Amino acid sequence: MMSSLDKAGTFRLGTRTVKRLGYGAMQLAGPGVFGPPKDHDAALAVLREAIAMGVDHIDTSDFYGPHVTNRLICEALAPYPDDLVLVTKIGARRDDTGAWLPAFSPAELRSAVEDNLRHLGLEAMEVVNLRIMGDVHAPSEGSIAPLVEVAAELRREGLVRHVGLSNVTAAQVAEARTICPIVCVQNQYNLAHRSDDALVDELAALGIAYVPFFPLGGFSPLQSETLNAVAARLGATPMQVALAWLLRRSPNILLIPGTSSVAHLRENLAAAALELAPEVVAELDGIGG
Prior knowledge:
The structure is a single chain. The protein is α/β, with parallel strands linked by helices. It has one domain: NADP-dependent oxidoreductase domain (TIM Barrel, Alpha-Beta Barrel), CATH 3.20.20.100. The protein is built from 10 helices and 11 strands. The chain has helices at residues 40-52, 68-77, 106-120, 145-156, 170-177, 197-206, 221-234, 238-249, 262-269, 278-285, and strands at residues 10-13, 16-19, 23-24, 57-59, 85-90, 92-94, 100-102, 125-131, 160-166, 182-188, 209-213. The strands form 3 sheets. It has a 7-stranded parallel sheet with strand order 3-4-5-8-9-10-11, covered by helices on one side. A two-stranded antiparallel sheet has the order 1-2. Strand 10 (182-188), helix 6 (197-206) and strand 11 form a beta-alpha-beta unit.
């Protein structure tokens, strides 16, 4: 059965093809992405509604909670639909206070993959993103070869089918591609923050998916005011407009907006059907300066 998500089209993710609007599970954990959800049953309902609405791509990590979102996904959705692609990320851990700490040793990376598999109830992860812990919102320069080599070994062993990268520079993507195939890159990118413009286009030419995070992150008051005005004219929410702009920006962009509310989930997914006229796109383009 065709869903509204089909209007946004599909793109390849490794050897799978997914709808371009998916779901990010991060917000299902407690405040600060730490601890259990406020409402366990509501979290399960969001996941089940996402699948019912046609989502076939869920982004998660075992350091969300930690261990919270993966267990919720398994409880809500296992046995998984054949077309569902679960993507996780490794490279960080949480301490007892909820702080985010790097976890880059070979043993930590392997353990992270094994934790994801155990808590999701899987024998192999379809895609594992290496999350490079630099600044929270921007990558840091430097070689990532040792980390990618560990991921490549896990791929050879069959624990990981495909490798992606998160919070990386174009040079790091190029370096990683000399070690093993890279199927996706997950960086901060939105209407206001477009430092990855060239990388988005380069990856599109290579057939590699680009997955932006923080679709409304870091907007100035003036930028938010412009977006709000456009959204009001279109009878949409600012988030819907921001997501629709990203879908239009490049065919290799896959979106993973997150929420812990069924109502907000439906709003976000409705962005797949939101059409932006050329003059609206031009106005939105101006937000980024």
